[in-house]
Amino acid sequence: MVGYFKSSGVRESKVRQKRDARRKKKSETTNWDYRSNPYTDPGAQYYSRTCKIQTLYVSFRDLQWQDWIIAPDGYDAYYCSGECNFPLNAHMNATNHAIVQTLVHLVSPGKVPKPCCAPTKLSAISVLYFLDESNVILKKYKNMVVKSCGCH
């Protein structure tokens, strides 16, 4: 009989059904789901609202600057957006001041605002442009591209 059940797969499928039913019942009674943890799941809703870098392409044509800027046509500027909520984690690049401000905000939310999401590192871009009809300038503009964001 044991040989029959092993070879036919009947016993194996019944065992699997029982095991799956136990797992389902256990997951229904468990309050904690590690996948909903904002610190371990980058897709969690909490994480999507935290301070982080966002995509922003600046087109000089859209700004109608194409007549005097020769190159580039535009650049990836990026920007910072999101909330700086308690607790401020390491990935938020929070200053010590922001950490203290968050704690004070928890005590007196009407008196002190939450810290702001802002750039922590910026880099330069080079722009080739006409100064007048006869002069062309290559200039490096500092602090034009957001490289990282944090809470300040």
UniProtKB/TrEMBL annotation:
<comment type="similarity">
    <text>Belongs to the TGF-beta family.</text>
</comment>
<keyword id="KW-0964">Secreted</keyword>
<dbReference type="InterPro" id="IPR001839">
    <property type="entry name" value="TGF-b_C"/>
</dbReference>
<dbReference type="InterPro" id="IPR029034">
    <property type="entry name" value="Cystine-knot_cytokine"/>
</dbReference>
<feature type="compositionally biased region" description="Basic residues">
    <location>
        <begin position="16"/>
        <end position="26"/>
    </location>
</feature>
<feature type="region of interest" description="Disordered">
    <location>
        <begin position="1"/>
        <end position="34"/>
    </location>
</feature>
<dbReference type="InterPro" id="IPR017948">
    <property type="entry name" value="TGFb_CS"/>
</dbReference>
<feature type="domain" description="TGF-beta family profile">
    <location>
        <begin position="23"/>
        <end position="152"/>
    </location>
</feature>
<keyword id="KW-0202">Cytokine</keyword>
<keyword id="KW-0325">Glycoprotein</keyword>
<dbReference type="GO" id="GO:0032502">
    <property type="term" value="P:developmental process"/>
</dbReference>
<dbReference type="GO" id="GO:0005125">
    <property type="term" value="F:cytokine activity"/>
</dbReference>
<dbReference type="InterPro" id="IPR015615">
    <property type="entry name" value="TGF-beta-rel"/>
</dbReference>
<dbReference type="Pfam" id="PF00019">
    <property type="entry name" value="TGF_beta"/>
</dbReference>
<keyword id="KW-0339">Growth factor</keyword>
<keyword id="KW-1015">Disulfide bond</keyword>
<dbReference type="GO" id="GO:0005615">
    <property type="term" value="C:extracellular space"/>
</dbReference>
<protein>
    <submittedName>
        <fullName>Bone morphogenetic protein 5-like</fullName>
    </submittedName>
</protein>
<keyword id="KW-0732">Signal</keyword>
<dbReference type="GO" id="GO:0008083">
    <property type="term" value="F:growth factor activity"/>
</dbReference>
